[in-house]
Amino acid sequence: MLYLDHAATTPVRPEALRAMLPYLTDGFGNPSSHHTVGERAAAALADARARVAHVVGMRAGDIVFTSGGTEADNLAIKGIAVAAIGARRRAGTVAVSTPGTAAEVSPAAHVITTPIEHEAVLASCDYLERIHGVSVTRLPVSETGVVEPAALAESIRPETVLVTVGYANNEIGTVQDVAALSAVTAAAGIPLHLDAVQAAGWLPLSGTGADALSIAGHKIGAPQGIGVLAVRGRIPLEPLLHGGGQERDRRSGTENVAGAVAFATALELAEAERLAAAERVSALRDAFIARVLALVPQARLTGDPIRRLPGTASFTFAGTSGEAVLLELERRGIVSSSGSACAAGSDEPSHVLLACGIAPEVAQTAVRFTFGPAFDFDLSPVADAIAASVAAVRSGP
Predict the structure, then answer these.
(1) Which of 95, 222, 348, 363 would bridge 266 by S-S if both were Cys, CB 3.0 to 4.6 A apart?
(2) Which of 235, 270, 305 is the last residue of a domain?
(3) If pLDDT is split at 50, 70 and 90, which confidence band does 174 have?
(4) Catalytic residue among 12, 87, 293, 342
């Protein structure tokens, strides 16, 4: 079986597994405990935090360990926005509504995002809109999923408290010009959060200009259930979880020490291999895309043809069913996906493809192929299998 769904999850690196194992056995201590066993765990956690900080170009105190990318996105978006709302209310710039009084003098706050974000981002923005009265702008994107910096600049208001954008899209692989976007937010003095879950291991995490970055361990060879929000200490952040005050009062709960150690190990390895892997896999990806487009007349590449993740190739196959093509491919020993794993099983067309202007009936034919950094073989047989699968689906039973 050939696994081509690395954007959904990656196998755990043996090095990460070996690194975490001691903290699942004799090093099991609670890092908040003030005894030898706890202090050993605390030292391992501090070391992991410093190693992650070095890769992302922030301070160790800026690293918040979470349960994964979804929690990191939620903490960044809700945490920054709610903290800003609290500050504005204390300053008297927003009136707190009570029965029989006038409505708020202005929106509680304003957040900017795009319609092609991961569900964790979109649902967090929806929550802020519904529960906290936040105004949300969803910037339109180009047909290849690109956010224009000029459009971002025009959408900023006096009450804007956060811009949240995906560094690289999880379905179509389009990479944003984060340098240009961060220049806009920096000039306006507004925090920029980048969902870097898909970018980690392929694109630089340091020097992006972002104030907050979300990363998921299971996309880079760490186990599922560990992630990071890297958020600069100067950015006020209201925690989602209250209690013991762990993670510098930003995320209460006993830390996953073994997961943090595995995360740091996997991230360091991914960063060390990043440039060579990106160059090698990009060449394989480009040859694969060219062959699919040559063999399948109905195939259309989604996402930006140039600014895309090295390990992502996604297509629509008009006149087919994406799910039917996936089943045909799996019958031929190839595992891929129709888009985000978080939306698997949905009958609705991809919100990402719809936002890029693709018709709903065509969006439902999408298939995504994502490769890991260790890929070093010719993908021509996969392209041949795609052509055969599409032909089988179109011909019917």
Answers:
(1) 222
(2) 270
(3) very high
(4) 342
Do residues 374 and 278 both lie within one domain? yes
Helices (H) and strands (E) in the chain, counts: 12, 12
Kindly state the DSSP code that residue 231 receives in the 8-state scheme. E
How many domains does the chain contain in total?
2
Are 231 and 357 in a shared domain? no
Do both 94 and 41 map to the same domain? yes
Which amino acid appears at position 67 of this protein? S
Same domain, 257 and 335: no
pLDDT for 310 beyond 90: yes
Q: Tokens in use for 31?
A: 């890092």
Does the model's pTM come out above 0.90? yes
- Dist CA 1 CA 332 (whole Å): 8
182 and 239 both lie in a single domain = yes
CA contacts within 13 A on the Cβ side of 64: 34
Catalytic (active site) residue 342: yes
Residue 5 per-residue DSSP state: B
Look at residue 345 and tell me whether its pLDDT is greater than 60: no
Residue 4, both tokens? 């081509």
| pLDDT over 90 at 106, yes or no | no
